[in-house]
């Protein structure tokens, strides 16, 4: 084999082996372990990542800068993920990650939807030590094929009503963006804040959205696909 071609193949193979793909956000949610709460952060290019929250004095930062190595997370692993386990009692906590200890390196994980006024992520710990994180993103809530059609799921614990509108029901018979036809109301909310409805759909690609309280249109955060108009897409085969 040509030596130059062989070297090119070796370089390409090495680069492919080192390529890192970010894990899905729900896989990085804080979780209960035997040692406490495991925090995870995807930051493959960082030199160091710190965990800071109201449970550790915000990592003793000074004007936003962190230098105390005891608050550093371990990593990164081969997937670019940093980790740190912290023992926490039952309660509500706020936290952020900080990259490289810089004043502009603070951010909340995008896997958590509940934030306070300062955009700190909010974490709930139950009396049993379980981690409770209100989030609209959950792999269990993706549209699911059922014997009767497709099951749609929407996390909206504070909604009074949630409608399902799509090209399969004339977009909920909306009038100037307002939906009020009761036949399109989803069932809920259940104890976990979830609304559900099952719809019989013909084979093909269908676009849809959820409509909170009849006038707030949102895409399905757990959809397999979303088009350029922010409409979710489900395909029935």
Question: How are the SSEs ordered, and which strands pair?
Answer:
Layout: H1 3-18, E1 31-33, E2 36-42, E3 49-53, E4 81-86, E5 91-99, E6 106-107, E7 121-125, E8 131-132, E9 144-146, E10 149-155, E11 162-166, E12 194-199, E13 204-212, E14 216-218, E15 225-226, E16 232-236
Antiparallel strand pairs: 1-2, 2-4, 3-5, 5-6, 5-7, 7-8, 9-10, 10-12, 11-13, 13-14, 13-16, 15-16
CATH class of the largest domain: Mainly Beta
Question: Terminal Cα separation, in Å?
Answer: 46 Å
Mean pLDDT, as a whole number?
88
Summing up helix and strand content along with how strands pair, one would put the structural category as mainly beta
Based on CA atoms alone, the radius of gyration comes out at: 22 Å
Number of domains: 2
Q: Assign the CATH topology of the largest domain.
A: Immunoglobulin-like
CATH H level, superfamily name of the largest domain: Immunoglobulins
Could you tell me the number of beta strands?
16
Task: Walk me through this protein's architecture.
The chain is mostly beta strands. Helix content is 7%, strand content 33%. The protein is built from 1 helix and 16 strands. Strands 3, 5, 6, 7 and 8 form a 5-stranded antiparallel β-sheet that branches. Strands 11, 13, 14, 15 and 16 form a 5-stranded antiparallel β-sheet that branches. Strands 1-2-4 form a 3-stranded antiparallel β-sheet, with no helix packed on it. A hairpin with a 6-residue loop joins strand 5 and strand 6. The N terminus is likely disordered.
